[in-house]
Amino acid sequence: APAFIFLILLSGISPLATDMYLPALPALGRVLHASASTTQLTLTTFLIGLAVGQIVLGPVSDATGRRVFLLAGPIGFVVTSFACALAPNAGVLIAARLLQGFAGAAGVVCARAVVSDYYRGDEAARRFGLLSAVSLLGPILAPAMGGALLMLGDWRLVFYALVLVGLIQLAGVIWAVPETLPASERHPAALGPTIGRMADLLRDRRFMAHVAVACLAVMGFFSYIGGSSFVLEHIYGISSGMYGLIFATDATGMAVASLLFSRFVARWSLVGLRRVGLTMSSSAAALLLVLSI
Q1: How far apart are the C-alpha atoms of 106 and 112, rounded to whole Å?
Q2: Inter-residue contact 17 to 70 (CB < 8 Å)
Q3: Which of 146, 162, 140 is nearest to 24 (CA)?
Q4: What is the per-residue pLDDT across 2-36, written as a single tens digit (0 to 9) for each?
Q5: What is the model's pLDDT at position 124?
Q6: What is the pTM of this model?
Q7: Is residue 46 a contact partner of residue 100, using CB atoms and an 8 Å limit?
Q8: CB within 8 A of 137, min separation 6: which ones?
Q9: CA angle, 170 as apex, 167 and 173 as ends, to 5°?
Q10: Please, which residues have CB within 8 angstroms of residue 180's CB and are 6 or more apart in sequence?
Q11: For the chain, how many helices (H) and strands (E)?
């Protein structure tokens, strides 16, 4: 059986690589002589690489097997993390972050595929639930970890820490994550059928309505995390370590809300729960706008 702890680490690379260096964004901009908007591109390009990588590498792994990407992904992540740490200017850092996101996507998509290959039924659902919990715990822990690293060194130390994470991932795959997709169950990764399935989903208006709501919610969250470090550290004068604690408080609220909604879903309708959540978030956003003005 694949060692599940390493699947968790592989699938949790997104919050580590996005949230851990958030407290360092203002300092990064000063050192590289980059504006706030340019500095924020280092976050945007990572997420683009992560998204594109999952779309591309997921279907390809169905044809080649999982292990080749479980090995190549961490290797690429280590190399690109080194490139980020050594970046002499913002342009190089932005490009390295794009490639880092693409490399990290291999672990994210293949770790979930390993679960679907190896486990069935309730056990598979339980394992997927554990992987999902990482996406809730990651944003809680990562900024605090980044803040602690910034007390020991500059923003480059965060990327050296990500190099170490990538090496642990690689060692874990080599040691304890075997191939889980037999050759007999693989099928060609044809571009046409993949695009066709995506087109079918895009034409499903009900499905796309759910996607639109989810995308808008995520856009709001990442708009906040992309600019919050500049606002809190420059305008309110808090330290990078304190920023990590504030962000951890935000993420804890998200985790608690997710837990509560998962408990309520058996009693109330999904549409009703979503309406409650959207009403709360929209009201809070409106209040923040009034306070800002």
Answers
A1: 10
A2: no
A3: 146
A4: 778 888 888 888 778 887 887 888 888 889 998 88
A5: 76
A6: 0.78
A7: yes
A8: 12, 15, 255
A9: 150
A10: 2, 66, 67, 113, 114, 117, 118
A11: 12, 0
